[in-house]
Structures are given as C-alpha cells and as structure tokens.
From TrEMBL:
<dbReference type="GO" id="GO:0005886">
    <property type="term" value="C:plasma membrane"/>
</dbReference>
<keyword id="KW-1003">Cell membrane</keyword>
<keyword id="KW-0963">Cytoplasm</keyword>
<dbReference type="GO" id="GO:0072659">
    <property type="term" value="P:protein localization to plasma membrane"/>
</dbReference>
<dbReference type="GO" id="GO:0046854">
    <property type="term" value="P:phosphatidylinositol phosphate biosynthetic process"/>
</dbReference>
<dbReference type="InterPro" id="IPR018619">
    <property type="entry name" value="Hyccin"/>
</dbReference>
<feature type="region of interest" description="Disordered">
    <location>
        <begin position="144"/>
        <end position="166"/>
    </location>
</feature>
<keyword id="KW-0472">Membrane</keyword>
<dbReference type="GO" id="GO:0005829">
    <property type="term" value="C:cytosol"/>
</dbReference>
<comment type="similarity">
    <text>Belongs to the Hyccin family.</text>
</comment>
<dbReference type="Pfam" id="PF09790">
    <property type="entry name" value="Hyccin"/>
</dbReference>
<protein>
    <recommendedName>
        <fullName>Hyccin</fullName>
    </recommendedName>
</protein>
<feature type="compositionally biased region" description="Polar residues">
    <location>
        <begin position="155"/>
        <end position="166"/>
    </location>
</feature>
Length: 166
C-alpha cells in the first residue's frame, strides 16, 4: 500500500469515525458495533438497526426543518466528498424524497430535506460537468418492434352503415 493510499484510508476512517460520533449525539442509541468497526463507513452503510433508527427519525413530524440535526448530519456527511460516506447518505435518498414529496402539500418549511436533496443534485451536476442527461421518449403512435400489434378488426360497409343509422 502506497503512502498516498494509507493517508487516504486513514483520512476516510477518521471521517467515518467522526460521522459516527456526530450521529451518536442525534440518535437515541448507536449500535456498539459501529464505533468498534475496522470499516466504519461499511458499518454505517450496512447496519440495519442504524438504518431503522435513521428512518424512524426522518419520519417524525418535525423532521425536515432547517434546524433538524439529522438533516444537518446527512448534509455534512454527504459533503465530506468521501465516496463511502456519500453512499451511506444515498441509502436514505428514497425515504428522504418520499417524505419530502408527501409533506409538500402541508406547506411546512422543509429546508433540511431540501438542503440534502440539493447537495446530491449539485454533486451529480458537477460530476457531469453541468451537462444534462437527455432521454428520448418513444413515439407511441408507431408500432413497437418489441410487441406484436393486434390486428384491427375489418370494418365492413354494412357495419359502418348500421352504426351511423342508430
């Protein structure tokens, strides 16, 4: 292992430990295996008990506000620019987006959720050098090469005549 790799691993390990310590001030209890893990980022990513606690905390009625500590932790942890810690935050993206979208009609401030979502968006935009992802939607008026089209029933002149006379 080169010196640069050792420094990078040590730096990542240290940041993951710091993230765990910060999270322990927010959640009621942190699984003891997280603090003692040799791979704390992986432990954060895969620990089901922790995922349940974070998900439950995100579902609380006051979550998502600008001063919400868990949203702040998610935002700060994602912005460490350590890929392994960013994956931890991406694990919670579906629940954050789902709760955010379900609370929009309530017209409550959701600056905490918005900050996390915008951080992820900004990261993706930067990774693509500002280039948009374009998609091409198929023209549904043309038959698909993947499906057989149903034959159209033949209309007879007498059928057309009967329908028009009614």
């Amino acid at each position: 292992m080169s010196t640069e790799q050792k420094v990078s691993w040590s730096d990542s390990f240290s940041e993951a430990q710091t993230a765990i310590q910060s999270l322990s001030t927010i959640l009621p209890s942190i699984p003891p295996t997280l603090s003692s893990s040799d791979t704390p980022s992986l432990a954060l990513l895969t620990d089901q008990e922790l995922a349940t606690q974070v998900s439950d905390h995100l579902r609380q009625p006051d979550s998502g506000a600008g001063d919400n500590q868990l949203c702040r932790w998610l935002y700060d942890t994602f912005n460490t620019s350590k890929v392994d810690l960013q994956l931890v935050i991406l694990r919670f993206l579906p629940i954050i987006a789902g709760i955010y979208l379900s609370r929009i009609p309530l017209r409550k401030p959701l600056a905490g959720f918005e900050a996390v979502l915008l951080a992820i968006y900004a990261h993706e935009t930067t990774a693509r050098n500002g280039q948009a992802i374009t998609i091409n939607l198929p023209d549904l008026s043309h038959p698909s090469i993947y499906h057989e089209s149903k034959p159209q029933p033949h209309k007879s002149a007498s059928t057309d005549l009967n329908l028009q006379n009614r």
